[in-house]
Amino acid sequence: MTALRVPHEFEPQRAIHTLWPAAGDLWEDDLDPARAEFAAFLGLAAAPGADGTAPDIIIYAATPDAAADARTRLPRARVIEAAYGDVWARDTGPVFVSGPGGLEAVRMIFNGWGGKYDLPGDTAIGADIAREAKAAVRTSELVCEGGALEFDGAGSVITTRQCVLNANRNPGWSEGRVEAEFARLFGVTNVIWIDEGLIGDHTDGHVDNIARFLRPGVVACQSPSGRDDPNAAVLDAIARQLEGARDAAGKPLKVIRIPSPGFVEHVVGGPAAASHMNWIAGPKHLVMPAYNAHADAAVKALQAACADRVVVASPSSAILTGGGSFHCVTCNEPL
Fold first, then answer.
1. Which of 100, 229, 237, 238 is 20 to 30 A from 31, comparing alpha carbons?
2. Residue 328 catalytic?
């Protein structure tokens, strides 16, 4: 057994770190609705489990107004004022790893999703989160974001070629070099490569929108919802690739498919990267983002495959205007 491990997110969590919506020029009319959606899904994620324990909710607030708003909406949370560009803590924050010396915070290079967005504070907030967690920091020359990585806690990680091997992040890196770096950073022995992610995803195919482990050896992905689903071919290709993959023990993956949201229009037109996969798990609930009437069928399908949690849908249309959802805006710190 390797000394390094990224625990599966259904394992006990000490804290959920998140960055509160603060920038009025970025969120515009969606600022208050996004804050309301944050409060709703975080409240569900923080509900105590059967043993009465619950993760701490640690909110970083970029302005006094954001700090006051977070304290009002989530009185139980701990609020820390800190600088950041926007709310995507999964990508600007560290990836926490259990190591032989305790908790470690792996910080890869963040370049604004391939140079698309350069916001002051986004390259520094990861250090603040690591410091708050009292985790030793390990660094890498790999340009990558936490949303590009899905760990099963048992030696496997899923990622996409579209993101990690993109010339806007890691020109000249081969799959073998990336796999060796993943092994060094995270202790994984098995990398499952998916070709590409959702249409309209500015992250270049983050895996937390397309494939998530429910437990080691069992992975969920989406099926098309309706003839107008813009990702129908992509979703079927993802399922085929997962069905042909194996876990770290060499066993075929069990693939569970749940309905997608179908076509959800982006604020500037075309399809938004809406996904039911961008859930977050607390000790009691699996909190799935909801966008339209397809959420009910997705909750039912997820609940059938997830007996140890109550699957609930929580609105995420305002958060989506910024480009992501619940998993994108959180950073899990394991026990």
1. 229
2. yes
